[in-house]
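A reminder from the course coordinator: this example appears on the midterm review sheet, so study it carefully.

Given structure:
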């Protein structure tokens, strides 16, 4: 349980969820009618422009961190409740927040009655802001002027995906190859002394046939699969510059001096 003394050091501290993920930073704290810290606003988003309210009854301090039992998504999606310094939390606001965070309505009722018993028509207690309390407690007559500073950063997110896909296409290729074939030709040779014995070796008159087998080559086509190259996906980081615009608030101080126009100090 966070005590009232610890509340005074909460403003501006980082807020974390149970998984160790940073949620945002503390904006301001509300106390109940008995002075017990009950609610805190958490600034979320890139520039801390969004504020969500969270209950403090199950929160804890870990060094300079405020640790909540809720994750970042739960806090960012909390009901939209006016978290300004000057507006109190109404009973309806509290009941909606209790229902959202899974707290009992009886606890909400008792807290509301405690606020009424302390003389507050709405359940709010007081909105505590560390800088304002310090200004009120200064005894040297000085006033602190604050301003917001624009902080720009980057967030890594998925911009697209690339993949390699392999598929088969069929195309025709042409090749010219030589083919050979055997042809018949008639050869005649006169009877000479060299072939005379072979010529008279057979019968004198007879009928006969003689065959010669002819051969020819024909083209055939076969395919062979061979690797030709390797392809892979590579990534490289390219840095561009973009201009971002945000609104920041500044406090101005005016002095009402006797016999002079209003004087403004930046």
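Designed residues:
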């Amino acid at each position: 349980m966070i005590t009232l003394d610890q509340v005074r050091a909460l403003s501006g501290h980082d807020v974390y969820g149970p998984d160790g993920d940073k949620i945002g930073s503390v904006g301001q704290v509300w106390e109940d009618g008995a002075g017990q810290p009950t609610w805190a606003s958490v600034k979320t988003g890139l520039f801390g422009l969004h504020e969500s309210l969270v209950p403090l009854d199950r929160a804890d301090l870990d060094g300079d961190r405020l640790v909540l039992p809720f994750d970042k998504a739960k806090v960012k999606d909390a009901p939209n409740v006016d978290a300004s310094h000057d507006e109190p939390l109404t009973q309806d606001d509290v009941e909606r927040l209790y229902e959202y965070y899974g707290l009992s309505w009886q606890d909400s009722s008792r807290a509301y009655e405690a606020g009424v018993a302390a003389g507050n028509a709405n359940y709010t207690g007081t909105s505590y802001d560390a800088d304002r309390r310090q200004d009120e407690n200064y005894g040297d007559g000085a006033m602190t002027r604050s301003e917001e500073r624009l902080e720009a950063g980057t967030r890594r997110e998925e911009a697209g995906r690339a993949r390699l896909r392999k598929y088969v296409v069929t195309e025709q290729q042409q090749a010219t190859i030589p083919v050979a074939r055997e042809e018949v030709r008639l050869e005649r040779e006169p009877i000479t002394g060299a072939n005379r014995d072979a010529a008279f070796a057979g019968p004198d008159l007879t009928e006969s046939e003689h065959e010669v087998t002819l051969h020819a080559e024909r083209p055939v086509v076969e395919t062979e699969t061979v690797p030709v190259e390797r392809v892979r996906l590579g990534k490289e980081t390219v840095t561009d510059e973009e201009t971002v615009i945000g609104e920041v608030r500044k406090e101005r101080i005016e002095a009402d001096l006797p016999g002079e126009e209003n004087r403004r100090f930046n």
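The helical segments are 4-7, 72-76, 91-100, 105-117, 130-137, 196-199. Strands lie at 14-16, 22-31, 37-44, 50-55, 60-62, 65-67, 127-128, 253-255, 263-265.
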